[in-house]
Amino acid sequence: MSTAELRYANQFEIIRSEEKDRYMISQLSQQLNELYTKLFGLNNFHIYQPYIQRLSGFLYYLTTTLSNRQTIGEEYICLIQYDPIKKQIPSIIRRLLMIFFRIFGDLISKYILTSFIIRPIAEDFFHPKLSLETIELISRFLITFIERIHKIFFYLTGYYYNISKILTRIRYLIYTRSTSDSILIQTKFNHTIKFLSLCLCIQHIIESYTLLKQIALSINQHRHQLNLIAEEEKQKQTKIISEDITSSTDYVRCPLCYELAISNVALVPECGHVFCWQCIHTWVVDNQTCPLCKTNTMQSRIVHLINY
């Protein structure tokens, strides 16, 4: 005996449908890439290729979901989009939002995370600011972390393969016939799903740990570079100050002791030569002449210069 029923699609059925749609979009994207290269050549192709991929997805869903038709993957598995809140086919607005989030959701989430979460936290708790490379790594880690947590949740519950469907509350229904064999298959399927969820959790932990190490390394490298720059600036400032002091006091370097006569400066008025106060007094006591030009002078004639 078998009974027909309309039930929610399980994880494998949804994954098979998504893989079929992903393959069709990749084929369409490849054709658009070839069309672009024929029309405009390879110049700037790498710049526009991501936009061509998004355009491919939009055109695919425009001609299927937005046109009240099943996608190739949904038709292949016999899936029907369903609104569990209103218990009907999703409205055109909800389907349009789902497509918008699916195609541009990564850009929107990256902008929100970078502008309103990562940068403010970095400015508050990190000094100096994080580099653009580190911010890129952190945003990629957070987006990947959310996606992996969602995938684990999907494998465990079967709800919403895409985050875009979570935001728009769109699920899948499938029409099947249940038999005793199908019940046994469903039991084995549940065990397989639990095993896959465990494997996915282990993979998620390992890859998250690896990415966190990259982020920590990037932060340390950035801090090291900034410390080197700060140290170089400090050395430059010290050198400039030292040169200024030297240049401003070179003319009062004592010819006797070869030290800078900064405070105790003495002048021989007969010739105008400058010495240390202590040095010239010691010399004049014995010689009564200028040490440089041998001009006659006396100890009482030496002038002590103040604020020279």
From TrEMBL:
It catalyses: S-ubiquitinyl-[E2 ubiquitin-conjugating enzyme]-L-cysteine + [acceptor protein]-L-lysine = [E2 ubiquitin-conjugating enzyme]-L-cysteine + N(6)-ubiquitinyl-[acceptor protein]-L-lysine. Pathway: Protein modification; protein ubiquitination. Residues 254-294 form the RING-type domain. It is an enzyme of class 2 (transferase). Pfam families: Pex2_Pex12 (PF04757), zf-RING_2 (PF13639). It comes from the Eukaryota. It is a multi-pass membrane protein. It is found in: Peroxisome membrane. GO terms for biological process: protein import into peroxisome matrix. Its main location: membrane. The chain crosses the membrane at residues 96-118. Its EC number is 2.3.2.27. One of its GO terms (molecular function) is zinc ion binding. SMART domains: RING (SM00184). The keyword Translocase does not apply. Belongs to the pex2/pex10/pex12 family. This is RING-type E3 ubiquitin transferase. It comes from Rotaria sordida. The lineage of its organism: Eukaryota, Metazoa, Spiralia, Gnathifera, Rotifera.
